[in-house]
Amino acid sequence: MDIQVHINNVRGSQIAAKITGTFTIDGNPFKFQAIAFGRIGGHNIGAKISKTVEKSLVKLGYDVNDVINELQQRLVRGDITLPEGLKKESFADG
Predict the structure, then answer these.
(1) How far apart are CA 63 and CA 60, in angstroms?
(2) Is 32:71 a contact under the CB 8 Å cutoff?
(3) What is the structure's pLDDT at 16?
(4) Domain spans in the chain, listed from the N-terminal domain onward
(5) Span 38-82, pLDDT tens digits
(6) Strands annotated E in the chain
(7) Mean pLDDT of the chain
(8) In sequence order, which residues have a C-beta less than 8 Å from that of residue 7 and are 6 or more positions away?
(9) Helix (H) or strand (E) holding 47
(10) Do 93 and 41 touch, CB atoms closer than 8 A?
(11) Global pTM value
(12) Which terminus of the chain is less hemmed in, N or C, by CB atoms within 10 Å?
């Protein structure tokens, strides 16, 4: 599954942060929100998507849980793009 993740905003600290962004799958962008504990590239991230996004993913033939798992893994690994001016080092390990 090929998902690209773009972070729009990060609020919080290196210990806990609220993340908003979009992920793109099959050329379709979808919004998400996530809470990161222990930093991106660190311990745990819980991502959430709306019911509307869930329905759209099902229409595209995707399993919602698989998509959320892949999204969370990419966030944890730091496999993301950031807006200009935001540096991964400001909220992530390494």
Answers:
(1) 9
(2) yes
(3) 82
(4) 3-79
(5) 755 556 889 999 999 999 999 999 999 999 999 999 988 889 998
(6) 3-12, 16-25, 28-37, 44-48
(7) 86
(8) 19, 20, 21, 80, 81, 82, 83, 86
(9) strand 44-48
(10) yes
(11) 0.84
(12) C
